[in-house]
Amino acid sequence: MVSNRHILSILIIIGILFSGLFAGNTGKIMGKITDKQSKEPLIGVNVIIKGTTLGTATDANGSYYILQIPPGNYELETSYIGYHTVTVKGVRVKVDLTQQVNIQMESKAIECPTIVVTADQLMVQKDITSTRKVTSKREMESTPGFESTSDLFRLHGGTTIDVGSQAIQFGDGTQLQVRDESMKDIHVRGGRGGEILFMVDGMPVTHPIYGGRDVLDLNVVDIEEMELLTGAFNAEYGQAQSGVVNITTRSGGDKFEGGIEYKSSELGLFCDSYDMQYSSLYIGGPEPITSSLLPKLGVKIPGRINFFIPGNGNLSDTEYNNHRKRDTISVLGLNIKEKQNNTGNLNAKLNWQISNQLKMILSYHGSWKGWSKFEWLWKNYSDHTAEYSRSNQNFNFRINHTLSKSTFYNVNMGYLSVDYNASLEGRSPPDFWFFLKDSVFYDYRTYINNFSEPPDYITSFALASGKDPYGFFDKYSYETLWRDDFTRTFTIKGDLTSQINPEHLIKTGIELQYNDIQYIDIQDGGVKLSNYGNHVFKNEREFTAPNGPYKEFGQNRWVFDSYPIMGSYYLQDKFEKETLIINAGIRADWFMPGPTIMESGWKKQWEDATGLKADWSWIKYKISPRFGISFPISIHTVIFFSYGHFNQLPELQFYYRDPYTGGFTGNPHLDFEQTILYEFGFTHELVQNWAIDVKSYTKDISNQVGTTRLLAALGLPVDLYDNKGYGRARGLEFELTKRYSNYYSGKLTYTVQWANGYSSSAFEDYIRSVTDFPNPIRERRLDWDVRNQIILQAIIAS
Asked: Which of 64, 465, 564, 749 could be 477's S-S partner, Cβ–Cβ 3.0 to 4.6 Å?
């Protein structure tokens, strides 16, 4: 039998041969250059972007285009024999969009000074065929409270952030943790949480286990531009039903730069604060070893290398301070007292421009987070609750090769690791238990090393859990959660982009991703023995040993190692005319669950637990068509329509939760969840610096994950994940924008939305089953259905 790793090797070779998917983080400038007097096109005009190596020349029609431009503001310079040089300032380039700059050149026969013009700053982007919100570095820096990528969702209509707990609490003090406590649900246009694709410099950084949730949460000092796509986005983006967050990070320039910032709210001069301490720093510029040191030694490296290194830290007690005892954090020899929520980021980016045709980029993103939560039931004894930590390491290596002025390709290789832990002061499940033998109490490790027969008596110091007269947990209660997850994701991506003629821009590619997932989740190991543990320590009936460590402990426990492989292929065409833009594409996604669920022992246990047939397929796939069309009625008005199918895998935990202990059980039969989206948009520049946007959307959501309760051969209740959920979302968005002028700028957004469905999460059916609450017979409002939402932003600056 061919192993999973052999399959991976074959797929990687195929990916290298045929290139791959690399979601765009560059834009395009195009236009036409004519003689100012005769209006005739000028052939062979040199067009360059100052401060870069990018440039081109006009064709027989006087037309030109420049590809692969990172987002930002540029100066465009044109030169031609017999004509005055023209410099166009303030040309704004956005990711995946086209900036049109038409230029008229003056003959040298006409005396005039150096010609410098400013690009038209139109508020209508004519080639947008779906909703996208672009936020530049300058806009982020000028927005109060904008410190990390998650703050993006607070600025735009149709998005809500669920601040509720990611755990289900039981009356005996135990809990069922749904997912990582720091993974907040972000709802976009009525969708569930976890339906967003997060991209950093073209590579996905979503959580390997929990799907569309960001694990890096970069700081604003590291970001050049962010865009939020909430409409029918192009076929190059996949594994997302509700939206895409596309982040372009900063690169070092030709001059050294640096900065440092510190903020604190601990003084509390004007109101109560969260005792926040925030600091950040950055440094960037030419890489000093290759630019200065090596040339002095007679060693010359081709091209130029620039670097950019930012870092930041943030400590806060949050809006709900649990007032538990705080430890200290050691940073560069300094001991800092931690707070309830502690985060840190360190990033680095190295750009090597070897030649005008070849460029390499190496980047690193590291983030660390440690926190404890606030729960009302534990408010008197918060020191008895668990603490959490998560660290992420992300490395990316990218090669960009330009074959001609109209064709280039990228190859991108990435590594992402997520290490997540949770426990009460580092105690593992056995650390709560004591074993009595011959009138002597032993801890777990001492007992199993010295005795093979059951103890005379077994107890846990957390078993005395109780509540005070007011319903809060007392001093004998403890959270005994144990989480130890470690995931690694290896990704190879690339793309081939070609402007085959002035009207058609073709992009195509393939993506391959291999995951190594180690998941340990023991929710109640400090207060309950497993069925296997009851057999070992209490001589109860024999039961199969569950997977993973600490087999004797925990009724709610899931342990699995899995090695899924997933990938995709897409083909996209952007057709551009003066009064018509079409984005059309198709995407294929596939998923191989891997060997874990194909083993005969796992299948038999699953069949015994569920009473169903383990006849799932070794591969799953979906096809997703996308289409968008835009009609620029004038330079001040544009309308568009878009349509698309958006397929996304359920959270991988829903496939692999093992069937050895009952309770929630994974279901390898699960199919892709699907959203079908229709969108209409209208944008109009009312007067100079004022514009209005109107968007309407309809979403039909099917195959949502829920649960069904079964009672099968093992006699244990099993809650099996299934694809029975359905939802719908309808909405209108109105946005009035005032661009900066006369010392102020602002934005007013109003959203009216209807979000209906049969359940608000994959766990709602379970809650109904344990509370004997009937299942709904028709759609109803979902938990995050915010019917009316108003967001006002106003900035006054000189």
From this structure: 465
